[in-house]
Design a protein that fits this description.
145 residues, alpha+beta, 3-stranded antiparallel sheet, 3-stranded mixed sheet, GIY-YIG domain-containing protein
Length: 145
C-alpha cells in the first residue's frame, strides 16, 4: 500500500481543500512504478527540481488476505470525504468488502493531508484543456454506495 505525494512548492487544489496527494495505490510498487512513470514525468514538469514523496504502509489483520485492498479503499474514501474527490491520478473509487476498522486515524490521515510545518506556495488544478482534467473530474461526480 502506498501514497504518492508532491514535494515542492505546488499542491493540488481539490473541491474542498488542498493536498499534495496525487495517488493512493496498492500492490507491488516496484512493478507498478513503470506504469506510474509517464504521468509522474508530466507532474515533474510542474514540480520542478523537487522530488516526489512516496509513503508505504503495511496494514495487518488476522485472517484477512485482502487487507491491503481494504486499506486502499478506506484511504481513498477518507480522502474523498475530506477533499471532495479522489486523488488526481486515482481513476476510480475502490470499495471495502468487509468491515475492517483501521487505526490510529490521525496517523492514517497524515499520509494524505498537508502536515504540520509544510508550506506550499501554490495550489493548482487541471483545466479543461489539460489531459488530466477528465480524470480529475471522474471521482467528484460518483456517488458513494
Amino acid at each position: 500500500m502506498y501514497v504518492i505525494r508532491l514535494n515542492g512548492l505546488f499542491a493540488i487544489e481539490y473541491p474542498r481543500g488542498i493536498s499534495p496527494t496525487v495517488y493512493i495505490g496498492e500492490g507491488n510498487f516496484e512493478q507498478r512504478i513503470t506504469q506510474h512513470k509517464n504521468w509522474l514525468m508530466d507532474l515533474a514538469e510542474l514540480q520542478g527540481e523537487y522530488e516526489f514523496l512516496i509513503g508505504y504502509c503495511f496494514p495487518r489483520a488476522k485472517n484477512a488476505s485482502k487487507v491491503y485492498s481494504e486499506f486502499e479503499a478506506m484511504l481513498i474514501h477518507e480522502f474523498r470525504d475530506i477533499y471532495g474527490a479522489a486523488p488526481l491520478r486515482n481513476r476510480q473509487m475502490e470499495f471495502q468488502k468487509s468491515n475492517h476498522e483501521f487505526q490510529p486515524t490521525r496517523e492514517i490521515r497524515s499520509a494524505i493531508m498537508i502536515g504540520k510545518g509544510v508550506r506550499f506556495h501554490w495550489a493548482v488544478k487541471p483545466m479543461k484543456s489539460s489531459s488530466k482534467y477528465d480524470v480529475y473530474q471522474l471521482t467528484k461526480e460518483q456517488t458513494t454506495f
